[in-house]
Prior knowledge:
The complex is a heterodimer of chains A (106) and B (429). With 106 residues, chain A is of the alpha+beta class. Chain A contains 2 helices and 4 strands, in the order H-E-E-H-E-E. Chain A has helices at residues 6-11, 42-53; strands at residues 19-23, 36-40, 70-79, 82-92. In chain A, a hairpin with a 2-residue loop joins strand 3 and strand 4. Chain B has 2 domains: 45-148, Rieske [2Fe-2S] iron-sulphur domain (Rieske Iron-sulfur Protein); 161-420, Naphthalene 1,2-dioxygenase Alpha Subunit, Chain A, domain 1 (Alpha-Beta Complex). Chain B has helices at 12-15, 24-27, 29-40, 163-167, 170-178, 203-208, 211-218, 220-230, 235-239, 272-285, 287-295, 339-352, 360-373, 407-420; strands spanning 16-17, 20-22, 45-49, 58-64, 67-73, 79-83, 98-100, 103-105, 112-114, 119-121, 144-148, 151-155, 186-187, 193-197, 246-249, 253-256, 300-303, 307-310, 313-321, 324-331, 333-334, 381-383, 392-393, 399-401. The chains are: A alpha+beta (106), B alpha+beta (429). At the A-B interface, strand 2 and helix 2 of A face strand 14, helix 8, strand 20, helix 12 and helix 13 of B.
Amino acid sequence: MDEHRYQEWLTLWESSDTLYWVPCNDDDIDPRRQVSIIYDDHDRLVQRVERLLSGTVLALQPGRQELWAGQALHRLRMRDGTHRILSKKVLLNNSDQEIPLVQFLI
Amino acid sequence: MATEMRPPLIDYSALVSGARVHGSLYRDEQVYQRELDQIWHKVWLYLCHESELPNPGDFLRRQMGAQPVLVVRGDDNAIRVFFNRCRHRGNLLCNREHGNADSFRCPYHAWTYAKDGALLEPTFEEGYDNNLSRADFGLTPVPRQDTYRGLVFASLSPTGPGLRQHLGQVTEFIDLFMDVSPTGEIDLNSGVQKLRYRGNWKLLPENSLEGDYHGPFIHRFAFEMHSRRSGLNMSSLYENQVPDVIRSLPGGHMVEDYRGASMTPPKRAMTPARKAYLDALEARYGKEKAQQLTSTIPPLVFVFPNLIYIMTHIRRFQPINVGETYVYYHPVLLKGAPEEINAARLREHEFGFGPAGFISPDDIEIMERNQIGVQARGNDWQHIARGLHRVRQMPGGGTAGYTMDENHLRGMWQHYARVMSGESDGNAR
Lengths: 106, 429
């Protein structure tokens, strides 16, 4: 992640039933009724990586160094002897404040 | 004899002239102060929707220009807007952004107020020789407040046109996006994405109602993705420029009105939930209107100066200083629609909008670059003449143009110039 090797990072994930989640306003919200900053199933996550690597994202031409504070919670599943990421939930310290745009994976 | 030093008066009718807008309007501190006086502290501002305060005691903090206010639902169910200022020595009465409270206690010396603003308790009353008249020290309500379809507006000016007069023709378009709810009511109780950008507040309304123009350029990935999925040929957007889509309305409002356009909303799977939703719409409106509502893209709406409606959400924004703005994305859910429909609306909103969407961040980035660009003083004029040769003056006032025309910007800026120069009291005309 630190080296922006996003395609490789994607291969660490399960290929379905996955969730990449950055809640908004509070750490524990009901995503069926409350909006999130990011709530990606597998397809959306793949698209997100594709977008970041497409070269068309204005905010990455070039990107700015930014610091974000928070906690990342991973759930893993064992498959064929290796661990795969089933879900990643990022609890951003600033999820209830006015933040700049988020253009990288966190 | 002392001479009072004043900054030279600015002639706003010279800075907004025909199809040109001067760059100083985005960067000048004196202009910003005048905007506070003439716009943010006078004109009707959108604060919140009633659904954000469902229960008595629910409260929200909001800003009206530089002035903090507190919106509270009382025990009588009425929503009141107060200055968020303790009557004792002016402390910020309520620091929390939102919540539910039985009363409001100032953190400084514990003066306590009821939900309807009455002063309950000034602490150590004997210090006033028991002479403090509580009735004189209740929370100060803002001069005017009013509501349209549950949207709560307030004005810091005690005089001027009423809310309906200010809204004028834009109510027709507010109705269109509200009516897609089977009960005719939206629900804004699903959280809010909060974002800030380093740019002047006026860049946002300029950016928000022209997705068909800048979209394929700055949102290239999202547009190509949509094109692949829907089979829509992007170049057809340019070939099929549609008249009467881009509208300016009296009062500085702007609309993208898709009712005459050939573009249709994305096809959706006919799940049981969707069928129930469509049946509910038909039950409320009859077959014909229900058909119209679901076969056209709802309008994009800008209500001068601080409210935008786009597809999935209401966007509220406020200036922090001349080069910084806060933006709030409130997803719009529909009362009376099945939970599955509303959950899908949330997912759809998250795809495009907010700090990590596939669309909003490009708008934010382009506005930040715009703020840098207008610092350059050479040829210090924005050129907003697109479609000038084919603009249609509408019978009720306002103008209509083709997709990608800039008549809506000319309308907004002309209204802005009148309000800033004091010629207009903000009246929609």
